[in-house]
Amino acid sequence: MQPDLLPGHIAASILLQLRTTSPLVHCMTNDVVQSFTANVLLAIGAAPAMVIEAQEAAQFSPVAHALLINIGTLTAERRHAMLAAIHAANESSTPWVLDPVAVGGLAFRTQFAHEVLALKPAVIRGNASEILALASGHSGGRGVDSIDDALSALPAAQALAQRVGTIVVVTGERDYITDGENSWSVAGGGVLMTRVVGTGCALSAVVAACCSLPGSKLDNVAAACQFMKIAGQQAISESRGPGSFIPAFLDALYGLHVEALA
Ligand SMILES: Nc1ncnc2c1ncn2[C@@H]1O[C@H](COP(=O)(O)OP(=O)(O)OP(=O)(O)O)[C@@H](O)[C@H]1O
Ligand SMILES: Cc1ncsc1CCO
Ligand SMILES: [Mg+2]
Predict the structure, then answer these.
(1) What is the number of the ligand 2 atom nearest to the C-alpha of 197?
(2) What is the pTM of this model?
(3) What residues does ATP bind to (predicted)?
(4) How far is Cα 59 from Cα 133, in angstroms, rounded to an integer?
């Protein structure tokens, strides 16, 4: 059964809060998506900072409003820096988000992803293959891409959320957001969002921004998914392919209207 859609008036009030507070997001993300992620955060009204050296990362994560850990181009040095940042974030109650890119097939990142589950991410956001792999030891997708359907991964997402005590987001044609007990679904977007790299990685950064806001964390995280779906759908209608999609997507995020969402 499909979970309910997030009501527009909830997303609208969360967008207003996001724009008013402009959360600072400490991004420890992969090499492929650094600039796109920073631009997505700026376009929607949050603020990015990519601080990656271990000593600085541990100093910075308590100052930021949220921390993003994305394992897309994990190295031994980055692993060390990410652990330092997560521990410092936890000591200062800064929420942190895990994006388990390509978890399952590759041993080093898979071991790291399982290790940090014990450090209580506030949210885990992945595509269907990543969530299935993390929840049930399944072998993962095709590299960084999903080969599974998001709805089919919802039971695994719910079980993972319950086991870890966190919120899990599975993205795809629809996005599903669950704390293991209650779930939202978010529709919109389009397949062109998967023909440019980093829409999922950037969503994880927006999720981090939104999970620093007051109120229901489940609603805040679902609203982040809603913002990206709406902007993606609008950008697809205004673009001719992946090249023109990216600027149209940034413009659509920038132009998201609180009144229109409501
Ligand atoms: N078939 C689809 N139809 C509509 N929207 C989609 C579809 N697939 C993905 N999306 C949207 O694209 C964005 C990225 O989701 P996806 O599941 O592709 O993440 P990902 O694989 O982690 O991406 P990346 O690794 O490139 O950052 C989300 O906003 C999601 O809702
Ligand atoms: C393509 C790619 N390779 C490692 S990380 C990444 C970005 C998408 O997750
Ligand atoms: Mg991804």
Answers:
(1) 8
(2) 0.98
(3) 125, 171
(4) 32
